[in-house]
């Protein structure tokens, strides 16, 4: 009988990273509402942020965290935040350029892809 506590669960790690991405998007949506006149108030980003943080906490309590997941999770949070910021600035061009957001977003996505092994060549057998 194998124990799941001895090794990390890759499905749990993916869930943590997706939740971090959603938390970043929600946090930037709230920040955009607070700082930009063009963005109207919506309660849904606040509700989604609270539920996402609760799910992240429950996931933290259920499964042990692998060594590099917190850093990749933080990167996923910033991917969500910069991605939402680029989207909002593309939607409202008078609020500023989205060049910085897009560059940071692409660098972070490439780094996360490298850390997760998506950019490494696969062995053919």
TrEMBL record:
Keywords: Membrane, Transmembrane, Transmembrane helix. InterPro entries: DUF1422. The keyword Membrane applies. The chain crosses the membrane at residues 16-34, 40-57, 69-87, 99-119. Pfam families: DUF1422. The keyword tRNA processing does not apply. This is YijD family membrane protein. The lineage of its organism: Bacteria, Pseudomonadati, Pseudomonadota, Gammaproteobacteria, Vibrionales.
């Amino acid at each position: 009988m194998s124990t799941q506590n001895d090794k990390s669960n890759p499905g749990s790690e993916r869930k943590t990273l997706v939740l971090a991405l959603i938390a970043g998007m929600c946090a930037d949506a709230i920040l955009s509402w607070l700082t930009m006149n063009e963005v109207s108030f919506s309660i849904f980003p606040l509700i989604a942020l609270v539920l996402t943080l609760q799910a992240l906490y429950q996931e933290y309590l259920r499964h042990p965290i692998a060594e590099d997941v917190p850093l990749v999770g933080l990167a996923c949070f910033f991917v969500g935040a910069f991605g939402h910021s680029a989207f909002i600035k593309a939607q409202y061009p008078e609020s500023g350029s989205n060049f910085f957001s897009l560059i940071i977003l692409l660098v972070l996505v490439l780094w996360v892809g490298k850390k997760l092994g998506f950019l490494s060549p696969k062995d053919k057998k």
